[in-house]
Design brief:
By secondary structure, the protein is mainly beta. It has one domain. 14% of the residues lie in helices and 52% in strands. The protein has four helices and 14 strands. Strands 1, 2, 3, 4, 5, 8, 9, 10, 11, 12, 13 and 14 form a twelve-stranded mixed beta sheet that branches. It is elongated.
Length: 315
């Protein structure tokens, strides 16, 4: 029994380590607001569950320092983009058209493992490492993302091929369009500093547009009070500026996967001819005997390996 409990505890620790560490700023402010609300005479008239709090963060300034990157690595991934069979079951050599238009997507992922959350949306600037920027000049170094939120962005890359293949008699040619992809991944840390005053309104859920009370507070003082009773908030640092501010080190992982080149791989197999295949045929253009696979991949009419990227964001 003791070993079983130990295993369960270890599994719980591993699971917690894999979970992102998120501090909800709204939750901290709401706890402070309820503590302040208890001091008012309006408390006896309403139940807590009947009240609605709206927090305005517009007077709180968030600034960020430069991003530090570490543990940069790269990996290669071969990928079959298209496979086509060219079957020649005649006694003569034949010429086949081999035309392909396909697209892949280069993917930029920014994942936060230590971050802050607040309901009022705002943007932050994420500076990409030089190792990613050097591969695509059209990729902006400064990426605008939602404050502290995981982000995925995709960039379309077309791959086109227009060629001809000669297939001997009684032969199958298997043509593969392969794409070599590389993925660069890195860890990052980013210092966020914030200070200013929050403005909160308290209303009833039945009449959310009628304000019962305004509450204004300094966010630095609110965080400092919360740190005394919540050890989880020790990740905050008090920065003694004029005025003082709160510092938090955001951490995460950044990766960028992209196609670097295309390869045409041809394989040959022998075919058995039937008695009806002995008739003579002159050389002419013939379409593949079997349709191309992977029809779900997106076609495009762009030129061969057009490096211009068409940004399609997924936030």
């Amino acid at each position: 029994m003791g070993n079983q409990n130990s295993i369960q505890q270890n599994m719980q620790i591993i699971d917690e380590q894999n979970q992102p560490f998120i501090i909800d700023l709204d939750e901290i402010v709401e706890q402070w607001i309820w503590h302040t609300w208890k001091k008012t005479k309006l408390l006896s008239r309403y139940k807590r569950e009947d009240l609605l709090i709206t927090i305005n963060w517009k007077n709180v300034t968030f600034t960020q320092n430069n991003i530090d990157f570490s543990d940069i690595s790269s990996s290669y991934f071969p990928r079959i983009l298209n496979r086509t069979n060219f079957d020649n079951k005649t006694t003569n050599e034949h010429l086949y058209n081999f035309e392909i238009k396909r697209s892949t997507y280069s993917t930029l992922k920014i994942l936060f493992t230590h971050t802050l959350h607040k309901t009022q949306e705002s943007n932050m600037i994420f500076h990409l490492p030089q190792q990613i920027k050097q591969f695509y000049n059209d990729l902006q170094t400064e990426q605008s993302i939602q404050f502290g939120q995981d982000t995925t962005k995709e960039y379309e890359i077309p791959w086109n091929l227009n060629s001809q293949i000669r297939v001997p008699s009684a032969t199958r040619i298997i043509a593969n369009l392969n794409i070599d992809e590389e993925e660069i991944s890195t860890k990052f840390c980013l210092l966020i500093q914030f200070s200013g005053r929050i403005i909160a309104t308290i209303a009833t859920r039945q009449s959310p547009n009628i304000c019962l009370k305004f509450i204004v507070g300094d966010i630095v003082q609110i965080i400092c009070k919360a740190m005394k009773t919540n050890h989880r908030l020790n990740t905050f640092k008090i920065i003694e500026n004029n005025p003082p501010s709160i510092g938090f080190l955001m951490r995460g992982k950044c990766s960028f996967r992209y196609g670097i080149k295309q390869n045409i791989v041809l394989n040959q197999e022998s075919l058995e001819l039937s008695s009806s295949s002995t008739s003579s045929c002159s050389d002419f253009d013939i379409k593949p005997s079997a349709p191309s696979e992977y029809p779900h991949l997106i076609s495009t009419d762009s030129s061969l390996i057009d490096s211009n990227l068409k940004n399609r964001e997924r936030l």
